[in-house]
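Question (not urgent): is this output format expected?
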Amino acid sequence: MISVASAGVVFVVVAVLGILVWLRSSDAPDETVAATPTVAVPRTRAPTQIASNRTPLPQITSPAAEITVTPEPPNPVDLIADWPEDRPFSVLFLGLDRRPGEGGGRTDAIILAHIEPRVRAATLVSVPRDICVANCRTDPFRINSVWQEEGPDALTRRVSNLLGVQVDYWVTLDFNGFKRLVDFFGGVAIDVESTIYDPSYPNATDTGFEPFHVEAGPNHFDGDMALRYVRTRHQDGSFAREVRQQQILLALVEQVISPQTLVESPAFLTELSNAFESNLPPDLVPSMAKLGMQIGSSRTVSGAIRPEDGMVREVIADNGAFVLQPNVPLIHAYTADLMRHSESLPPPEAGSQVELANRQQPAS
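Got this back:
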């Protein structure tokens, strides 16, 4: 199962990419589309020095206590329109393994997030990269190769068919972008559960091996070590790797990422400007991000496709390749059950959006 705490990771990633897409595209003219929210958000400007000969802003003085109160500047997130409650949507998050010289890349991480705005809840489903999407015996075509061979639209269709859920949008972040993200914020602190030694970890050029070793206990990783930690799998397998990916992303989010730091950090935007791809409409993304930040981990139902649940079966193809053959009807039923659970959650209580308020505050 996906850790429930990882829900916060997914939605902060939405906010990260949302504000990034918005700022990158804010020079384009606004368009109003029927039945979609219109977002009108002013561009963030750097503070300017007020000339000494200008009249200062008026101050509000309390006659009783003689306390001077200055108006607080508006919070940028407060200026973003709310997402309509009658418009649920799904986003496919993809971690892209793009090797040097490759135009596409393999999707090593595939997570579908279905958002139900009416109850401020979400469903997460993790898809194993080794699921076969063709004849598993004679044509062992894995789902993590679809992006590179057929493109993003084909991958969204195949995931939709596999899960029985319409995929509306997709987002990718490549490994180099991940490393730059970690390094930009000075690394990430991780408590490693058990010692890892992987003698078969591939080197940078994928022409040989560069053993990876990290001791159990508190560690501080730079971008390169963080990437190795989330990619190693020869010692404990692919499913354990998913847990490490969630752990390090959650730690990174908790330490450094918030919408306020993104708005105030042009250098960060420059670092990630070429690290991701998406079909998210730029005018809708700020509202999506705002909604995502209102959905905490306690309002997320998560799951993953696992062999022990009977949803996939291990198969060795005629050419010797290892793949997972899906039981599609069972996967459909499983995903639908997760979504029903999510949509049955009671609406959040008024004034309970503490997490959103905290994330809006600038870093001290």
